[in-house]
Amino acid sequence: MNQLHPLMVFFERIRDDGRISSTHIGIFAALLYYRQQKEFVNPIAAYSRQIMPLAKISALKTYCRCLKDLDAYGYLQYTPSKKKTRPSTIFFIE
User: Fold this and answer.
1) 77 with 71: CB under 8 angstroms?
2) Contact 90, 77 (CB under 8 A)
3) Whole-angstrom distance, CA of residue 12 vs CA of residue 14
4) Averaged pLDDT for residues 61-81
5) pLDDT more than 70, % of the chain
6) pLDDT tens digits, one per residue of 28-64
7) Residues 25 and 14 sit within 8 Å (Cβ to Cβ)
8) Residue 48 contacts by C-beta under 8 Å, 6 or more apart in sequence?
9) Cα–Cα distance between 80 and 89 in angstroms, integer?
10) What residues contact 26, with CB distance under 8 A and at least 6 apart?
11) Whether 20 contacts 73, CB under 8 Å
12) Predicted pLDDT of residue 3
């Protein structure tokens, strides 16, 4: 892992990226917290119901859109699960 804290690295990368909103930042920070709780595994397997409260997001549509954005913009790799009984996979690009 980079010597800098992953959230600091993320902020450096998004500094001039006008596409990133506070919602994206909240989700990314919540994912990093969740990852820390899982002993920094990469990728993590997470359900939206685990991450959304941490990110203070109540709309599933917003959560999914922001994760897809973060994936499309190259900040992480997101593989959504199509089943409620299976977690999505999120890979952190280091």
Assistant:
1) yes
2) yes
3) 6
4) 97
5) 96
6) 999 999 999 999 999 999 999 999 999 999 999 999 9
7) yes
8) 60, 63, 64, 88
9) 6
10) 55, 56, 57
11) yes
12) 45
Amino acid (1-letter code) at residue 13: R
What are the structure tokens assigned to 73, written together? 């913009």
* DSSP bridge partners of 76: 92
For the chain, the straight-line distance linking the first and the last C-alpha, in angstroms and rounded, comes to 7
Asked whether the beta carbons of 44 and 34 are under 8 A apart, the reply is yes
Instruction: Give me the pLDDT at residue 4, please.
Output: 53
Residue type, 17: D
Sheet holding 44-46, edge to edge: 44-46, 88-92, 76-79
Task: Report angle CA 41, 45, 46 to the nearest 5 degrees.
Answer: 120
